[in-house]
Amino acid sequence: MDALNFKPALRKSLVPLTGAAKKKPAFKFTIAKAETLFSQNVKLKGGGVVKVTAKRNSQETGNIKKIGKLPEQKDQQWNCEIIQWQGNVHTKDPVILNSNFDKLYPGVIYPYESIANGDYKPLPFGRKPLSINVDGVHFNKAAIVVQNPTKGTVRQAIVDIVKTKTGEGSARSYGQKFEVYSEEDLFVRTGGSGYFLTAGGSHQIDYKNNSKSHKYFLEVYQAYYTISVNDNVHEPTDFFVTKEEQPTAKDAVAAKDINPNWVYVDSMTYGRMLQVMFQSDESFDEVGIDIEGHADFLFAGGKANFNMKQQSVLQNTSVELVAVGGNPVYSAQAVNASSLQELKERIDKYFTGHDDEQPISYTLRTLDQENVGANMITDFTSRQCAPRASKYAVTWDNVQCINADDESGGEEVKAMVRIRAFSGNGKDILDEDKFNNPIIINNSIKQTGLPIPMPWTFTKGTEDHPINLNSGEQYALGKKIVFTVDKNDDKAKIGIRADILEYDGAFSGNDDFADALWEKKITEITGKEIVRLMCTDDDSRIQFNFTVTPVYD
């Protein structure tokens, strides 16, 4: 995998962001509009840096691409793969830049730098009464006017609205779910929230140790309701007392000083949210644990059908869990679950509570009524380790005709592979099923000087019954060989040779393709490897596809 392209899913609001809900103000600003509201480098706990730029009307795109690979780190117990990445994520949502974001409330107005530095100091100007309304479940009182909007009065108004609700929140919804490569990766994919609640908070999430280096982030939330500033509030003079209106008011602001780049909290969504980080010595993907299915089992009540190997991996997986909202007793019980099934049961219990909501999402707008999003850029290094295995399986998955140069448009072939393992002293390691016993016997006979052809581990196709391949076609094989290797032998390696014999008929003669070779030391195999070998003859191209997998007892 060289790149990840994704759409950031930060929003947890019940109110869709249309960008056209608010009218453009008729007010004539003296201060010029800035497309970039603020930019800073956010330094993370582990030393990484993310450049965050707050922007107007940002789009939603995510790209994380591989830019390099460093030499593997290895010892007798672990093999570690180290990859350099570059991330560039644009989101329509504001980014959480510190752990003080709970100080936000609907209708509050800030210069953006006050949000960025974490002091959250509202502008010191007199405010006019503010109309706020609720979307979500049914309420007897869906709107209220706050006469003197401050943190205390707005929150009291929300309490007064919530007292009139007649139903509970929506169903559970998924937020982000992905494999996490670093603190920086976690930050840009969750817009800061996943970082500040987990790795940047009090949790012990380490990206430098060999153990537990495979990490998976799952998020689920339940939105109860969204409190928004009423759509009829769209002029700066709807927010502030101006000197033009009240010349004697000490806290009035002059119209010429009103900045279109000031931002206000347009909406806040309240509910409850769980963020779960799984940390494992082994890759979930390599043992066939699907993160989507895993999320469905834990959060949506789906069925889990894990084989013995998958159960073993999950049993040895550590879990860090963060709850926002919800009953703290239930969230604490989920943290201390002793098994996957018990964790699921306690997560279910967490979502049975009532009247336990907290802010889980918010939106920002500028005073000239444009949405505030962000761009996050970072370079980071992932370090994923796996215990050095004592066995390695090589599966010949299939052969595929990439291009056929025969006039018929197809190839009639015999496909051959020789898959071998060698100890550090160069001796063959016999496989578990002894497929390579003829090869080892052949090596002994060759020492006598007799010219005997080297056998193949697997072949498919004969002159009477060849494999028929047209351009683009694939022929499935699924042949597997397993080797037991001394994990302390740093020079032990696995090699694959592939070859094709094309049958062209009695008058044309057969074509022996150029063979292809792959080999790698076991110290360099840090996880499942996809191996592709191309055999060629003139314009004909036939590709062999293999999977090399460490096997843990």
TrEMBL record:
Gene Ontology MF term list: cholesterol binding
Domain of life where this protein originates: Bacteria
Sequence intervals crossing the membrane: none
InterPro entries: Thiol_cytolysin, Thiol_cytolysin_ab_sf, Thiol_cytolysin_sf
Alphabetized Pfam families for the sequence: Thiol_cytolysin
Protein name: Thiol-activated cytolysin
